[in-house]
TrEMBL record:
Organism: Cephalopterus ornatus
Domain RRM: 471-545, 566-644
GO molecular function terms noted in the UniProt entry: exonuclease activity; RNA binding
UniProt-listed SUPFAM superfamilies: Ribonuclease H-like, RNA-binding domain, RBD
Listed InterPro entries: Nucleotide-bd_a/b_plait_sf, RBD_domain_sf, REX1-like_exo, REXO1/3/4-like, Ribonucl_H, RNaseH-like_sf, RNaseH_sf, RRM_dom
A cellular-component GO term for this protein: nucleus
Protein's UniProt name: REXO5 exonuclease
Presence of the UniProt keyword Manganese in the record: no
Length: 736
C-alpha cells in the first residue's frame, strides 16, 4: 500500500520568515531526495519523500504578501487549503534564487566538470560486479522464466493481483498454464485518457513474438473525458466519436488471443493492466528488467535508442504509437534474454544516460528549455552559472522539469515582449502536462497594468491603514474624572497595547486603544463592551470607516483559516513568566503541540500574551473554555480563537513599528488611481484563485504544492513575499 507523504513545519514567530536558500533546500530535497547531496530542509520536514508523486511550484509574478491580505476574501481556495505559510524575503532576481544559483553543488556544466563526471562513470561501470543488473540476475544467460516478475514483485510494483483490494471486478486472462522458457512472448501497450474514474484506456495494441500487430484498437471510455492527453496518447475527441468498442470488448478479445502460457511484456506494464482492469500471472516489465539503483527506471525511449538503436516517440509525431511502444518493449526483452545480463551490463547504460543528459545541460546555458506559453529569457540570456541548480540534477537523473509562464524575465525585471498568452491558456496547458511531470513551475500574472511599483506602494498603504483600524478600538463614555490607569490595566488584560489616548472631542471622554495583535482588539470588543470599567458602563467598538464595513466578515474568515486551525490566543499573562513557566503551567492541556510567546522584535521582551497550538481542533476548543477565567500567578487569563498566529503577527508588528512609514500624501494620487481599478483587480484575483484551485484538484495525491508570492524588491521599496505549501492528500486538502 502506498505510504502517505506528510509535511511538518513549526512556522511561528521568528521561524516563519524563510530565505530563498531555505526555500531552495525544500525544493531540492523534495525533487531529489538523498541523491545529489540533498538533505532534509532545516526548517521543515517531509516524511516519506520517496513516495512523493511530484513537486508543483506556482509563482504569482510580481505579487507580494500585500496582495494576499488586501484580497484575502478573494483568495478563498488558498486560505482554505494551505496550512503552512511563511514570509518570504524578497529577491531582486527571484527565478535565479528559486533555481538555486550559487548553492554548494559540484560544478557539472563546465568542460572540466563534464570530463570528470564522465570518466567517473566509466570507472564505476568497468566493474560489472557493481552493476545493478549483475547484482540482480548474475552474469550467465538464462531462460525467459528467470525474468518474469514473482508474485511479491508484482505486489510491490502495483500489479493487479487476484484477491487483492481494488481488483474485485477485474477480469482474469485465464492464462494459468505453467510457463516454460519456450512460452510465447506478447508485447502490450495502452494509451489512456483522464476521466473522473482515473486513467481509462483509449487505445490498445498487442504484438506477437515476431513483432506482428495482432490488435490495435480505439476504445470508448466509460466516463466523461476530462483530459484526452493528446500530446502523449495521440488520441483526440474527434477520433473517439464514432468508436463503439468498450473496455469489456477489449477484455474479451485479449482473453481469446492469448494462449494459456502467454507471457506479457511491457514497459511499466502495471499501469496498462490496471487501466485494462485485467489480471495476468506472468509478466516481464522492461522498466524493471533493465535494473537501476535506488528504484529509478530508464525510459522506454532511451532504452530503444541505446539498446536497439531505434528512435521511438519522436517529437514530430502527435502522441505515442502504442504498437511501436509494444514492439520496442518486446524487442528489449528478447535482446536481454538472448544476450544475457553481462552483455547488457557492458552497454554501460547509466554512463550513456548521464553523458546524454550532461551534454544537454552543457549545450544550454540555462540547463533546460522552458516549455509552454512563455519563454523564460532570464534563463537563456543570463551568463552561465558557475554552479548548477537542482534542475540540472533533475535532467541528469532523467526527469524533465516543466516550465509554463506568461512572460519572459530578464535581469532588469518584466520583459514586455511576450504578453500574448493568458492565464487561462497557461492553465489549460498545465492541466494536461503537470500531472505527467515530476517537477513543474507554473507562473501566473495579473498583467502588466497591475504590477507597477507605485501601485504596489499604494496597495501596501491601504493594507497598512486597514490593519491599523482593525487593531484600534474606541471605548466609552467615561466620567470626567475617570482613572486612566485602571482603564489601561483592564484593556491591557486583553493583550499588548501599542498606544492609549484620551479622546476629548466628544461630550464625554472616550479612550482610543491601539493593540499590537488582532486577537487583543477582538477580545476587547467581545468581552468589555457593556462591561463596567472605571465606574462607567462602556461600549467598545472599532472605527467606523468604509474600509471597515467588512471587518466582521474578515474576522470570521480569519478564524476559519486553515492556518489557525487548532490554535488559540491567551492573554493576561504576567510578564515575569518565562516560556518554561508557561510550558509547565499549560502541560496539563490535552494534545498541546507548541507554544509561541510573542516578543518585542526590538527589545526582545515578551508580551503579556501567547499562542497555543494543539494537535486536534476539539482539544483547542476544550482548552479555550478551560482557560477563560483561569488564574495564573494571581492574574486572570482570557482566551479566544487565533486570528494571526503565524507570519501575519510578525508582519503586523513590523508595519506598526516601521520607522520609514510612508506618508499618505505621497500616495494620495496613486491610491485614487488604484481605487478606480480595484474592483476589476478583485475579479482578476478571484479568477486567479479559481485557476489555482482547478490546477490543485488535477494533481495526483502525494504531490507537494508550493504557491509563492515572490515579493517586491525595487527602487520604489521592498515588500516581503509569501509562501503557502502543503502535500495534497486523497481528500484534496494539503496534508500537514
Amino acid at each position: 500500500q502506498e505510504k502517505s507523504c506528510r509535511l511538518s513545519a513549526a512556522l511561528l514567530g521568528e521561524d516563519c520568515e524563510i530565505s530563498h536558500d531555505q526555500l531552495y533546500e525544500l525544493l531540492k530535497y523534495a525533487a531529489l531526495g538523498k541523491c545529489h547531496n540533498a538533505a532534509q530542509p532545516s526548517w521543515c520536514r517531509i516524511y516519506h519523500q520517496s513516495h512523493l508523486a511530484g513537486v508543483v511550484v506556482v509563482v504569482l509574478h510580481e505579487m507580494s504578501q500585500v496582495h494576499f491580505y488586501r484580497f484575502y476574501l478573494q483568495f478563498r481556495h488558498l486560505r482554505k487549503v494551505f496550512r503552512h505559510r511563511f514570509t518570504l524575503t524578497p529577491s531582486a532576481d527571484f527565478l535565479a534564487s528559486l533555481y538555486g544559483e550559487g548553492t554548494d553543488l559540484k560544478p557539472q556544466n563546465t568542460a572540466q566538470g563534464l570530463t570528470s563526471s564522465s570518466s567517473e562513470c566509466v570507472t564505476k561501470s568497468s566493474d560489472l560486479q557493481c552493476d545493478p543488473i549483475i547484482r540482480r540476475y548474475g552474469e550467465k544467460r538464462q531462460g525467459l522464466t528467470s525474468y518474469t516478475l514473482t508474485l511479491e514483485e508484482q505486489k510491490k510494483n502495483d500489479y493487479p493481483i487476484k484477491g487483492s483490494p481494488g481488483c474485485k471486478d477485474y477480469i482474469s486472462t485465464e492464462c494459468d498454464q505453467q510457463r516454460t522458457d519456450s512460452s510465447p512472448l506478447f508485447g502490450l501497450d495502452c494509451e489512456m485518457c483522464l476521466t473522473a474514474k482515473g486513467n481509462e484506456v483509449t487505445r490498445v495494441s498487442l504484438v506477437d513474438a515476431r513483432g506482428q500487430c495482432l490488435l490495435n484498437e480505439l476504445v470508448k471510455p466509460e466516463r466523461t473525458v476530462m483530459n484526452y492527453r493528446t500530446r502523449f496518447s495521440g488520441v483526440t475527441k474527434k477520433m473517439l466519436l464514432p468508436v463503439k468498442t468498450r473496455l469489456s470488448d477489449i477484455q474479451t478479445k485479449l482473453k481469446k488471443m492469448l494462449p494459456h502460457d502467454a507471457v506479457l511484456v511491457g514497459h511499466s506494464l502495471n499501469a496498462d493492466l490496471q487501466a485494462l482492469e485485467m489480471i495476468h500471472p506472468s509478466v516481464i516489465d522492461t522498466s524493471l528488467l533493465f535494473a537501476r539503483t535506488e528504484g529509478r527506471r530508464f525510459k522506454l525511449k532511451f532504452l530503444a535508442k541505446a539498446v536497439l538503436g531505434k528512435e521511438i516517440q519522436c517529437e514530430q509525431k502527435l502522441g505515442h504509437d502504442p504498437t511501436e511502444d509494444a514492439r520496442a518493449a518486446l524487442e528489449l526483452a528478447q535482446f536481454f534474454i538472448e544476450q544475457g545480463p553481462a552483455k547488457v551490463a557492458e552497454l554501460n547504460l547509466e554512463m550513456l544516460l548521464t553523458a546524454e543528459k550532461l551534454a544537454e545541460v552543457s549545450q544550454n546555458k540555462a540547463a533546460l528549455q522552458p516549455q509552454g506559453c512563455g519563454v523564460q529569457k532570464q534563463l537563456n540570456e543570463s551568463p552561465p552559472l558557475s554552479k548548477p541548480c537542482f534542475l540540472d540534477c533533475l535532467q541528469v537523473t532523467g526527469q524533465k522539469p516543466l516550465l509554463l509562464g506568461r512572460q519572459g524575465l530578464d535581469s532588469s525585471g518584466l520583459c514586455q515582449s511576450n504578453l500574448s498568452t493568458s492565464n487561462k491558456q497557461i492553465l489549460q496547458r498545465a492541466l494536461e502536462d503537470v500531472p505527467l511531470s515530476t517537477f513543474s513551475i507554473i507562473q501566473f500574472s495579473l498583467g502588466p497594468e497591475y504590477i507597477a511599483s507605485h501601485l504596489h506602494a499604494a496597495l501596501y498603504e491601504k493594507v497598512r491603514s486597514k490593519l491599523t483600524d482593525m487593531l484600534t478600538i474606541y471605548a466609552g463614555p467615561f466620567e470626567g474624572s475617570f482613572c486612566l490607569k485602571s482603564v489601561k490595566k483592564e484593556f491591557g488584560r486583553c493583550g499588548p497595547i501599542q498606544s492609549l489616548t484620551v479622546v476629548t472631542e466628544s461630550f464625554q471622554p472616550y479612550v482610543c486603544v491601539q493593540y499590537e495583535v488582532l486577537e487583543a482588539a477582538q477580545l476587547a470588543v467581545e468581552s468589555l463592551s457593556g462591561a463596567e470599567v472605571a465606574g462607567s458602563c462602556i461600549k467598545v467598538q472599532r472605527p467606523v470607516t468604509a474600509a471597515m464595513l467588512d471587518c466582521d466578515v474578515l474576522i470570521k474568515e480569519l478564524e476559519l483559516d486553515v492556518e489557525n486551525e487548532g490554535m488559540i490566543y491567551v492573554a493576561g499573562l504576567k510578564k515575569s513568566l518565562t516560556e518554561t513557566d508557561l510550558q509547565e503551567e499549560f502541560s496539563q492541556l490535552k494534545d498541546l503541540e507548541a507554544l509561541f510567546l510573542p516578543k518585542d522584535l526590538q527589545s526582545g521582551k515578551h508580551r503579556n500574551c501567547c499562542f497555543l497550538k494543539f494537535q486536534k481542533s476539539q482539544s483547542a476548543v476544550d482548552a479555550r473554555e478551560a482557560i477563560n477565567g483561569w488564574t495564573m500567578k494571581g492574574s486572570e487569563l482570557r482566551s479566544r480563537n487565533a486570528l494571526a498566529s503565524g507570519h501575519l503577527w510578525r508582519w503586523i508588528w513590523q508595519m506598526n513599528h516601521s520607522s520609514g512609514k510612508q506618508g499618505k500624501h505621497i500616495f494620495y494620487e496613486k491610491m485614487e488611481q488604484l481605487s478606480d481599478s480595484e474592483q476589476d483587480l478583485r475579479k482578476k484575483v478571484k479568477k486567479l484563485d479559481h485557476h489555482i484551485k482547478k490546477l490543485y484538484r488535477s494533481l495526483h495525491s502525494n504531490t507537494l504544492c508550493v504557491v509563492l508570492f515572490p515579493g517586491l524588491n525595487s527602487t520604489h521599496g521592498s515588500q516581503p513575499g509569501l509562501g503557502l505549501m502543503g502535500i495534497k492528500n486523497d481528500g484534496g486538502r494539503s496534508a500537514c
